[in-house]
Task: structure prediction
Amino acid sequence: MAKQVVTRTYTASIRNQSRVQDDLDALGFAASKLWNVGRWTCSRIWDKIDHIPNHDELTAYLKNHERYDDLHSQSSQRVLQELAEAFNGWYGKRRNGDMRANPPGYRKHGDEHPRSTVTFKAAGFKLDTKYNRVRLSKGSNLKKYWSDFTLCEYQTRPDVDLSAVESVQQVRAGWTGDGWELHFVCKVEIDVSEAPGKKTVGVDLGITNFAALAYEGGHAELYPLNCLKEDDYYFSKRIAECDDSNSEQAARLNQTKSARRAHYFHTLSKHIVQRCVDDDVGTIMIGDLSGIREDEENSESKDWGKHGNLDLHSWAFDRFTDLLTYKAEMEGISVEEVSEEETSKSCSCCGRTSDANRVERGLYVCDNCGTVANADVNGAENIRKKVPPSLASDRGDRSNGWLAQPSTFLFDKETGVFAPQERVSS
Result:
C-alpha cells in the first residue's frame, strides 16, 4: 500500500442548530443580497459597454459596497466568484447555440432573499476538533461587537475524524430546506493500492457514446448515452408540463433528474475502474475537452450541429473525469489528461490524417492502409498512444480487427449497473 494526499469533502450536522440558526440565516441572506448586487452590477456594465466583468473586476467594483462587509472578505469574494462562473457558463452555452440558456438570475423567493451557501476560507474559520466546534467569522456589518462570531457544534459520521486530516481548507454552511449543515473540504492522506499493472487504456468522451475505451492488448468498449438521453427527454417534458418552472414540482423533478445523472456517472466511473483493475491497467489516458467548445485557430465557437451543441453542455465531462480520477487513485491507477488534437482525424494504425477518413459519425475508414474502425474507438486508441508503449505487452503487430468490433455496455435500469448490451433488457 502507498500513501497519497487527496481532497475530500465531509458533511456534518449542527448540534446546536437552534442557537446558531439566526446567525446562519443572516449570513445566508447576506450572501444572497451580495449576489443580487453583483448581478445588478454585471447587468449595468453589460448594458453600457457590452462587457461582463470577471471575478477580479467585480471584486474591485464592489469591495467598498456596504453589502460586501456583511460577510468576511473571503466569503464575499467567493460569492462574486460563483457569480462570475455562472455568467461564464451561460455565455459559453449561448455561444454554442443553446438559445434556451438564460443568464444567472437574482436570488429571491417572492420579496425575500433565500439562504445562499456561505463559504469560509482559511482566515474565516477556526476549527476546534477536541470539542467538535468550528468558529465562523461574520462580516463587520453583522457584528454586535468586534470579536463577534458564530460558534457551531458539529457532528460528522463516526468514521470521519477531522483531527486526523492533513488540513481543512474550507468550511461551507449550506441550507438543506430544513436546517443548516456544514461541509468540510479537507486534504486527507489515504492508503492506495499499488498499480494493478503497467498497461494503458485510452478514453474518448463524446456526445453520442459518452465514453469509448481502447485497451492496450487489443480490445475496445463503448458506453452509449441512451439512458441519459431518455432521462433528459422524459424530465424536460414533465417540467414543461408544470404551471411554473420555479414551482416545487419542477424543483423536485430537477432534483430527481440530477440525482439519476449523478448515479449514472458514479456507476460508470466505478465500472470502468474495475474493468481496468481486471485488465492490469496502470494508466488511464483521457482526452482533455477544455477546447471542445472553441476553435483554437480563429477563437470561434465550434459547430457540432443543433442537437450536438445542446448535448455538449448537457453532459458533465469535467465532473465525470473528477469521479474517474478519484476512484482510480484508490486502486493505484493514474489518470492523465492529454490533448485530443487530431485524434478523431488520424488513423490509429498508420497515422494518416484526413478529414475525409471519418466517413460518417460512427465509422472511420483509412484511405491509406484500409483500416476500418469505429470512429470513437479509433479516437480512444490515438489518445492511448500518446504515452510511450509498454514493450512487455504493446507489440504493435497485433490484428486491428478489434477497432471495428468494440464491446458495448449499457446501463441496466433494473439492476442499476452496467452490463454487456446483450444482457440488458430493452
